[in-house]
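Suppose you are handed a protein chain with no further information: no name, no annotation, nothing but its sequence. What can you learn? This example shows the usual starting point.
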Amino acid sequence: MNLRPYIEKFTRRLAEVEAALSDPKIFENKQRYQELSREYSRLKDLVSRGGDYLKTLNDLQSNRALLQSEGQDSELGGMAKDEVKRLESEERRLAVDVQRGVVPPDPTDSRNTIIEIRAGAGGSESALFAADLYRMYTRYAEARGWKIENLDSSPSDLGGFKEVIFSVTGTDVYRRLKFESGVHRVQRIPATEAQGRVHTSTATVAVLPEAEEVDIEIKPDELEITVCRASGPGGQGVNTTDSAVQIVHKPTGLIVRCADQRSQQKNKARALTVLRSRLLERKIGEEDARYAAQRRAQVGTGERSEKIRTYNFPQNRVTDHRIEITLYNLSAFIEGDLDPIIEPLMSHEIETRLAAIQT
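A reasonable first move is to predict its three-dimensional structure. Written in structure tokens, the prediction is:
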């Protein structure tokens, strides 16, 4: 792939954005200013990497010519040979960085995220697995310096979750977590299994980019809002106050409930946030469907019915079925060390989108 035209394009666009940001009138439109500032930061990094890439190409060409003229047996030729090997490795690394910049960024990648985990097939064991997934994502978020905020949950009898909904706030949250949407399968011996047999259970994970009011307009007359007394753990204040909020979106029939806070107003605001995010996901899904033929091969389509990953505890194995990668470090993975699978998924998405651009 000839990257030089793209680097030249990035350089021209950087100059345009820099000029736009220097115009005092830009501050009159806060949203536009923020968009251009993010683009400027991205382009500045890309142009810098592009410059390094072009310099490496020139150095590589010079050392190859020197190697050819001097021969491998001479001292100068031997030095050129070592330098060619180093520069080839550097060229491949920088090429990947520039190629990633060629792919237009997904506007939702920088969004905060709402994650919904629900127990699936497997009864009590699936609810325990849902709790394990919740803990796994919490540990991963803590390691990356992200903030977790619980929105709603429905505990099971044995300490698991029938359902748990929480938000994740931080840098590039959706960009890294969007591949988690789908059916997660666990194979292990449940605590309730007396004969030591391995059971298979599932839990579903939905990862929603947090919607802003400008993304989704919700009219007051489209909502049916009811308040009720919260149930479950949380102390007297939760159990004796009508603080839980349930919102029904009449046009779609979507139902959202939030009961994590003692304040009715806070629960209402958070329920509306979840509702907007679900509506945004539906909107994105409808738009994606129009380009289904082009995007069918891409990772992270959000298909809830597909089994995306298997966690096999007896073999300490985790397998992601979308990119056919298997790791034998499930014990670390379930503790939040997700990058060994998330990074290849991100790279695969870039490769598929690049292939679509070139065809």
